[in-house]
Amino acid sequence: MPLTLDTETIRLINLFENITGATVRDCIVEEGIVYYVVDEGKIRIAIGKNGSAIKSAEKIIGKKIKVFEFDKDPVKFVKKMIPKTIDVELKVNDNKRIIFVKVPKKDKPFVIGRNGRNIKIYRKILERNHKIDDIKVR
Asked: What CATH number was assigned to the domain covering residues 74-137?
């Protein structure tokens, strides 16, 4: 199923691409934060020197921005999305694809986020880009 985007999301993608020069694969707006998934190797361009590109994009868009680098391999993609991971495992059972992420105990609250906000975003991004059904943090 192809990814469908509304006009506001398309506007945010075009604005971000024009400001940073990085190609955007996906964009999700959640709780006043804009999450972008950029093509492989384009994360440096998206952030800019000393974060200059992302700072100007935040100013123009008027929202906080978080950027993730895409990878064709879902395991590598999760490692890029959650840098504090120790181990990532993809399991398929009953036609459900589930990612298991192992993180240090002290970093678990950071990875999950307040009220599960971060894990919900990771789940949504993985579902849209890699058809992953769920993500579990250990």
From this structure: 3.30.300.20
Question: Could you tell me where in the chain the CATH 3.30.300.20 domains are found?
Answer: 7-69, 74-137
Inter-residue contact 20 to 54 (CB < 8 Å): yes
pLDDT > 70 in the chain, percent: 98
CA 68, distance to chain mean position in Å, is 4
Report pLDDT digits (tens) over 5-56.
789 999 999 999 999 999 999 999 999 999 999 999 999 999 999 999 999 9
DSSP 83-114: TT-SEEEEEEETTEEEEEEE--GGGHHHHH-G
Taking CA 87 as the corner, what is the angle to CA 99 and CA 40, rounded to the nearest 5 degrees?
70
Predicted confidence (pLDDT) per residue in 61-81, tens digit: 999 999 999 999 999 999 999
